[in-house]
Design brief:
six-stranded mixed β-sheet; binds adenosine-5'-triphosphate; single chain; cell membrane; nucleotide-binding; Rossmann fold; binds magnesium ion; 2 domains; alpha+beta
């Protein structure tokens, strides 16, 4: 296991385009870091530079404090798992897993290889498939074989490039929890590329958000969700995405298309002398006013909305409320939406209500939200004006503590197992 440090890493391809632009990131020993961002933002390029499949144009890459820019991939001792598992069709599962050990020609005895393969196969529940060929396996089983191949090497770190994107939704969910469990158990430093929201939010200790090759924010999932630094991060993290609305200042109120939000000290300080801002409200910040308790209701903003469409998902009810946007911010929001791979449907409010809500398609509904949950962004710089650095730091500190506990438990367990085995 090892730490991985990126220092001002730049990648320019032949055409001079900076696919990765001045990225600095410290990945601690045993940490699980997720890289996310829209298609083409440089995720795979960054991963390939770490493993050594791609030259680094400038900057330093360090593994455990040693600069490895010029080290060949096989000498970096990192294990990569790709989206298309790249298994050898003519080899059995056993031999596929053993392959990286056989490659080292004599470094491992047959009995060492056998014990490592069997250890990996039992971790991944592949014992009964060891004699089969990859073609006869399900997608999830193949993915596990690919992970087995990474595990046997006991490499310094795992690098995953969208390993689950070829699987159907159910299997993806299962494999996701398996990867989380495995990483906790082995406590191997892991960098994991995805553009799946759920994977990004659930798997990692920290998530790094990339936009056109530039790192926007690195934080624990909770801090990213709660305290995004800018419009891009706010819009990228969360599903359904954060609602963005034009907000005009009118005296003591911030006026959004469907409501007047009374400005408290926090909002007044954030907005300063601006008269136009972009307001961000997460879908889950809204409630059906009819189900909000009366004492809570008074602290929030209540408004009438003509609900267009509703979607009932069992645990939640999504309601869509169209609104007219303000031409002054329309262009910024449309551009942002394109960048976020969106479908250009930003002029409707999406609210996630309690599934018990009786609101249905076409209803005139009364909705509620708490102004404390409102984010405000500068329309020019797109920076968050409401972000609370102290709060973000304390959320991250809690997450780091949780990780340390998990890593310590994994090490204790490994030590116990080693003791039992010898
Ligand atoms: N070999 C190459 N030569 C020139 N440009 C490249 C090369 N590989 C990637 N690029 C460019 O670098 C940028 C980043 O590509 P990269 O594959 O790292 O994106 P990504 O974030 O992994 O995207 P995706 O989510 O679609 O996999 C893109 O603009 C891409 O066109
Ligand atoms: Mg990619």
């Amino acid at each position: 296991m090892a730490s991985i440090t990126l220092n001002h890493i730049v990648k320019q391809y032949g055409d001079g385009f900076p696919a990765v632009n001045d990225v600095s990131l410290d990945i601690a020993d045993g940490e699980f870091v997720i890289l996310v961002g829209p298609s083409g933002c440089g995720k795979s390029t960054l991963l390939r530079m770490i493993v050594g499949l791609e030259d680094i144009t400038s900057g330093d890459l360090e593994i455990d404090g040693k600069r490895v820019n010029d080290l060949a991939p096989r000498n970096r001792d990192l294990a990569m798992v790709f989206q298309n598992y790249a298994l050898y069709p003519h080899l059995t599962v056993y031999e596929n897993i053993a392959f990286p050990l056989r490659l080292t020609k004599g470094q491992y005895s047959d009995s060492e290889i056998d014990s490592r393969v069997r250890n990996a196969s039992s971790l991944l529940e592949l014992d009964e498939h060891l004699d089969r060929k990859p073609a006869n396996l399900s997608g999830g089983q193949r993915q596990r074989v690919a992970m087995g191949r990474a595990i046997v090497r006991q490499a310094q770190a795992f690098l995953f490039d969208e390993p689950l994107s070829n699987l159907d939704a159910k299997l993806r969910g299962q494999m996701r929890t398996e990867i989380a469990r495995l990483q906790r158990r082995l406590a191997t430093t892991t960098v994991y590329v995805t553009h799946d929201q759920t994977e990004a939010m659930t798997l990692g200790d920290r998530v790094a958000v990339l936009r056109r090759g530039v790192l926007q924010q690195v934080a624990s999932p909770r801090a990213l969700y709660d305290q995004p630094v800018n419009l891009f991060v706010a819009g990228f993290i969360g599903s359904p995405p954060m609602n963005f609305l034009p907000g005009r200042v009118d005296g003591d109120h911030l006026v959004v298309p469907f409501a007047r939000i009374p400005m408290d000290e926090r909002l007044r300080t954030a907005i300063g002398s601006r008269d136009l801002v972009i307001v961000g409200i997460r879908p889950d910040a809204f409630e059906d006013a009819d189900v909000v308790s009366s004492d809570k209701r008074g602290d929030g903003v209540t408004f009438d909305a003509d609900v267009d469409v509703t979607e009932w998902l069992g645990s939640e009810l999504y309601a869509y409320v169209p609104f007219e946007t303000d031409p002054a911010v329309q262009k910024q929001l449309e551009e942002l939406d394109r960048e976020l791979d969106g479908e250009g449907m930003r002029t409707q409010l999406v609210v996630a209500l309690d599934s018990l809500s009786s609101i249905r398609d076409g209803d005139a509904a009364t909705l509620w939200f708490d102004p404390a949950s409102v984010h405000v962004f500068d329309p020019e710089s797109q920076d968050s004006l409401t972000r609370d650095d102290d709060k973000a730091a304390s959320i991250d500190a809690d997450a780091a503590k949780a990780r340390q506990r998990a890593t310590a438990r994994a090490k204790e367990r490994a030590a116990r197992e080693d003791a039992a085995a010898s």
